[in-house]
Design a protein that fits this description.
Largest sheet: 8 strands, parallel
Helix content: 25-40%
Structural class: alpha/beta
Shape: globular
Strand content: 15-25%
Number of helices: 7
Oligomer: single chain
Distance between the termini: 17 Å
Number of strands: 10
Order of helices and strands: EHEHEHEHEHEEHEEEH
Radius of gyration: 16 Å
């Protein structure tokens, strides 16, 4: 007898209000993401992140997203948010990822921007120091944000690639394409932010629910 297929796991990132967080939790999100990055329209300060983290505790894995943080910021994030996972979405080297993981004492996920097959080359080095890899669309050189730009990359780039267990897919996902994304990449976890918004930084409850339903039905 073949093993049952596990349902796709879903991260809703960039949550910033108790109401939309509650929608994500009730819809069954596996991870909820809190962005601490001033240039992002989804930025939450540590006071708000702390309140949202308490709301989600025990209901979903809590992720704090940081971009090229120094040691002081890492310590402050851990103290304020008590995250289950730290997402690094900057230009952190494998050595820096390892150092942040050791300093924080928490699992770490490293985001890697993808535009061409060559962009997959660093995965092996990061997989040795990070607990999870996230593949996102590579931002344009002049982009203000390292992610959350609503763009997808060519998923055929991943065909035949040796990806670590638990690799997560992001970039331009929404309720209309997540089933196809899961089927074509063979990955079992997805991360969405702008694809469940009515405007940058404004999460849409209906879109959150629709995305989670679509992702679950892909199995």
């Amino acid at each position: 007898m073949s093993a049952p297929i596990s349902p796709a796991r879903v991260k809703i990132c960039g949550l910033s209000t108790p109401a939309t967080l509650d929608v994500a939790l009730k819809a069954g999100a596996d991870w909820i993401g809190l962005v601490h990055f001033l240039r992002s329209p989804r930025h939450v300060d540590f006071a708000q992140a702390s309140r949202l983290s308490v709301q989600a505790r025990g209901r979903a894995h809590r992720v704090i997203l940081l971009v090229d943080p120094d040691d002081t910021l890492v310590r402050a994030a851990v103290e304020a948010v008590d995250p289950d996972l730290i997402q690094l979405h900057g230009r952190e080297s494998p050595e820096r990822v390892a150092a942040i993981r050791a300093l924080a004492g928490r699992p770490v996920m490293k985001a890697i921007g993808v535009a061409t097959r060559a962009d997959l080359a660093p995965i092996a080095a990061y997989a040795g120091v990070a607990d999870r890899i996230l593949l996102d669309a590579k931002p344009a050189p002049d982009a203000a944000l390292p992610g959350g730009n609503g763009h997808r990359f060519d998923w055929t780039i991943l065909e035949g690639a040796d990806l670590p267990d638990g690799t997560m897919l992001s970039g331009g996902l929404d309720a209309g394409n997540v089933r196809d994304a899961l089927a074509r990449t063979g990955l079992g976890a997805v991360d969405v932010s702008s694809g469940v918004e009515s405007a940058p930084g404004q999460k849409d409850p209906d879109k959150i629910a629709a995305f989670l339903a679509a992702a679950r039905s892909a199995s």
